[in-house]
Amino acid sequence: MLALLALGLLSAAPNSLRWNHLGYPPEGRSKIILATSDSNLTGRSWKAVPPDAGTALSGTLPKSTVAGSGQSPWTNHHAIDLSAARTQGLWTVTVEGFDTAKVLVTKDPWRSFAPLAVRHLTAMRSGPSQGLDWRKASHPGDSSCAVWLPKTPVDSGAWSATQRKVRVTGGWYDAGDYIKFTLTTAGTTWFLLRAFEENPTFHPSSRSSKELPDILDEARHGLSYLLQLFPDDTTFIIQVGDSRDHNQGNRLPEDDALDGKRPALSALSPAHMSLTA
């Protein structure tokens, strides 16, 4: 729903302008607005007035870029190119037969999203270190999980318990449940580190310890979990928890009746191990 609002996709008007409501940077990226309609509006005039009422941009609607599809109810999609709009502020875009669009041009329009994504990961932390006042320590039983091995044939999806125990505290819960997956944890950690490498000055320090920006504090949480997953030469944990998680109903992680009973599924899986490495 948030993505639809950001892209302006929720209008049901016969003619609708669609654009990124978060805004566009002044330089370096294209600024495309779609004029969508059930009618062919090729040649209709458009105008974009800058916030300082200076020199306006104008033109005519080109041919439709694509036809209607399951992703859009309209049969015509005319692209308005505002890439020449460099003045920061709200540009007023008008097309005859359409509602007026207010298109924001601003430096770093997506900056507000980065802290939200990192904060979501912080809220999804498992273990004693959430970094949030309203979260309690969760799943301490993961400090001693029984190792489960795949039964043969391996592709049967069946597992059997062993007497061995491993420590697998920390990590992040998966989407909507409390299972921890090595593949997604490794991928998430890698992307956090790459995002910081790409632009170290972009990331704030609002919650984490002073020596690290929030994004690296979160990456450290992921790395600390991954470092536990290869305790010996024959054991690599690819998952903590199983399908029983989905039968527990709604509960807070600190109130999970499965705590202390969660399996650590072990398999020498090239995909999991290579991404973790």
Q: Overview of this structure, please?
A:
The structure is a single chain. With 277 residues, the protein is of the alpha+beta class. Helix content is 19%, strand content 22%. The protein has 5 helices and 12 strands. The strands form 3 sheets. Strands 9-8-12-11-10 form a 5-stranded mixed β-sheet. Strands 4-3-6-7 form a 4-stranded antiparallel β-sheet, with no helix packed on it. β6 and β7 (101-105) form a beta hairpin. α3 packs antiparallel against α4 and α3 runs parallel beside α5.
Helix percent reads 10-25%
Order of helices and strands: HEEEEEEEHEEEHHEEH
Broad structural category: alpha+beta
Radius of gyration: 25 Å
Average pLDDT score: 90
Based on the model shown, name its key terms.
277 residues; 4-stranded antiparallel beta sheet; 5-stranded mixed beta sheet; 5 helices; alpha+beta
What is this structure, in a nutshell?
It contains five helices and twelve strands. It is α+β, with helices and mostly antiparallel strands and 277 residues long.
Topology (elements, then pairings):
Layout: H1 2-7, E1 15-18, E2 32-37, E3 45-49, E4 57-60, E5 76-81, E6 89-95, E7 101-105, H2 113-123, E8 145-150, E9 159-166, E10 180-181, H3 182-198, H4 214-226, E11 237-240, E12 264-266, H5 270-276
Parallel strand pairs: 8-12
Antiparallel strand pairs: 1-2, 2-5, 3-4, 3-6, 6-7, 8-9, 10-11, 11-12
Helix pairs in contact: 3-4, 3-5
